[in-house]
Each structure stands twice: as structure tokens, then as C-alpha cells.
Amino acid sequence: MPDTLHLAVALDGLGWHPAAWRLSAAEPSAPWQATWWTALAAEAERGTLDLLTVEDSLAMQSSRPDGPDGRTDQQRGRLDAVQILARVAPTTRHIGLVPTATVTHTEPFHLSTAVATLDHVSGGRAGWRPRVSATSAEARHFGRRDIPPVDPLRLDAPQTAQLVDDLFAEATDVVEVVRRLWDSWQDDAVIRDTATGRFVDRDRLHYIDFTGRWFSVKGPSIVPRPPQGQPPVAVLAHVPAAYAFAARQADVVFVTPADTTRAVEIVAEVRAAEAAAGRVDPPLRILADLVVLLDETPTLARRRRDRLDELAGAAYASDAALFTGSPAQLADLLTDWHRAGVDGFRLRPAVLPDDLSTIVRGLVPALRDRGLFRTRYPGGTLRDLLGLPRPVNRHVAASPA
């Protein structure tokens, strides 16, 4: 296990707690302003975090598993994550920028060009979190397929299991097509030789000719190969099907252990999925997700949580564990989970910008005191930050031995 850990932050609206907008120091309209996102990114970069992610979906936020809930007391609506980070890119210099984009109803060609463009405009700091959609509400926005309602209490029902398998198989094909499109331009395809009048070398542009169950894509891309060659792909995974998807197609996996024991078990499950997939690439970087609600003392943090739950009308529950306490206590927890084999963490601030500021100004110094986090950026791309080599283009012949 390396001595230092990776640290990321997940940004969503005014925070992950549904009542965050009621207690945030920001105006409720802030998430619809570019300055909100650039300020959050600047704060995260001030803490030398590896990357930030921005949440997105193709349906309105809801407290129900599928469809609108009719509530008017919680924040609803988002801006497009890819476009947010395209705006953030020129205001930052080091931090990785990873938008969420749904693969279930989006053409892989569009996803490829969007993320490749973000990698170009950020100087090699883009990533991508492909998201699978299993809701009928999102499907109805497009009208191209029927997705039956899923009962969250019967996820092992045969129809649901088949749906999940199909969605992840489709997602695997989407990421494969995106990766092939990123490689459809060789690194030296753009010549720009004014003397000869040759702008590109057409022999270094390639058709991908992909035909699968859900789509066929000819290629090549319209965007030259990204600076990183292959921007890192990150997957949020809770179940074996998602671990298998990550093992086949991702570089980073976000997992959701509830405690140290479960962290050990999940790391083992992910590594087993890699072995089953015959993975030969660098191992997945495993980052554990935690919702964090921080304050100077545990008592003050609990008071904030109780007030938020009171405003929301219910105790907050999430797919990820909720940590409530001081930065020093959180640093101790992260140390334990890191020893359990987790490579790093993606923290979800309960309230923005409050908990992000405490992460940067309280947690990061505590981790540095423990020798677990860097004091400055080393420079380079997001792949460099994650310790991932730049892949060789698949169309470049291997050098003779």
C-alpha cells in the first residue's frame, strides 16, 4: 500500500443533504451561476485534491427510486456536468475534472467528443464517470425504449436481474466505443505543415467499425486524440455487476463501504472481479465514498446534522456511509480504511461550501500531519496524479523486440 492516499470531492448542487440549501452560506440560486462552480473548484484545488466530480442525471432529483416525488422543499434541477467543467477548466491548473454522463440514453459518439474536448481545453485533466440509468422516468424522456419500474426491495427478481445485466453490458459497449474513438486519431495525425499544405495525415485516422447489440459506430472521431490518450474512466459501484463493469472498462472505482470490515471485503471483491475479467492494465484505483458533515467538535457536527434532518423532516440516508464529526476524527477513519486497502476517498460534502471548506482547511492539514497527503501538486495530467501511465494508441504497431 502506498504511503499517501488519493483524495477527491463530489459536488452536487448546494450539498448532498436534501436540506443543505436551507443552511448553506450560499444563495439558493448559486448552483445556476458559473461563479459558484469556479469558486468550489478553486477551493478544492487549494487543498491539492486529485479530482472533483460533478453529479448529473437525465431526470429531476427525487426522493423516490423512480419518477418525481412532487416535493417542493428540496432543491430540484441541475446544469449539465460536462458543460460546467468546460467552464471551470480554464480557471484551474491542476485538479482533475470528472463529469458524470449517463450512457443508457446517450450516443457514445457524443460522449466521446464531449470528454475529449474537455481533456483538450483542460490540458489533460479530464475524466468521465459513466452512469447507468435503470429508471422508467428517464426512459420516458427519450421514448426509444421501455424500462419497467424497478422495485428496490426486489432487486433479485429475475426481470430486474436481467435488466441490470443488460444495462451494464450496454454500458461496457459504450465505454469500449468511446475508448476506440479516442484512439481513432493517432497522436501524430495532425501535421499542420504549411509548406506542403498537409494539415492531417489521413493514414493516421482510423475507422472503428464497431457493431454491437445496441448500436453501430463507424468513426473516426471528429476530435483529435485527447492529451491523456485515454482520459480516466471512473465508475460508482455497489454490486457485483458494477464491479465487473469497472474491472473491464474503468480506471477508478468509487465504492461505498459502511465500515473498515466492509472496506476489506469490497477491496477483495473488486480485485476478484479484475482477475475474473483477465485485467492486464494497471489495477483499479479504489476510492471509498463518504458523505461528510464536519465541524470543529463532534458535538457541533451532530447539532448541524440534527438541524438538517429536522429541516428535511427525516434522518438522512444515503448509498454511502455518513460521517459526522471533526476533521481530526475523519482523518483517523480515513487512515483506518486506507490501511484496509482503499487507495483513497471521494468525499461528498453534506453542505456546500461549508463542508468543502472544512475538508480543505481542516481535514487536509490533518492528513498531511499523518504523512498521508501531499503538500503540493507534482504537475502533469490527471492520469499522472492517479499514477496511471499514458496508454499507447491501439493503432500503433508494437515495436520489435
TrEMBL record:
Name of this chain's protein: LLM class flavin-dependent oxidoreductase
Recorded family membership: Belongs to the NtaA/SnaA/DszA monooxygenase family.
Species annotation: Micromonospora radicis
InterPro entries: Diverse_substr_monoxygenases (IPR051260), Luciferase-like_dom (IPR011251), Luciferase-like_sf (IPR036661), NTA_MOA (IPR016215)
Record's keyword terms, sorted: Flavoprotein, FMN, Monooxygenase, Oxidoreductase
Higher taxonomy: Bacteria, Bacillati, Actinomycetota, Actinomycetes, Micromonosporales
Residues holding FMN: D56, T100
Domain called Luciferase-like: residue spans: 39-306
A molecular function (GO) term: oxidoreductase activity, acting on paired donors, with incorporation or reduction of molecular oxygen
Pfam family, one: Bac_luciferase
This protein's record includes keyword Zinc: no
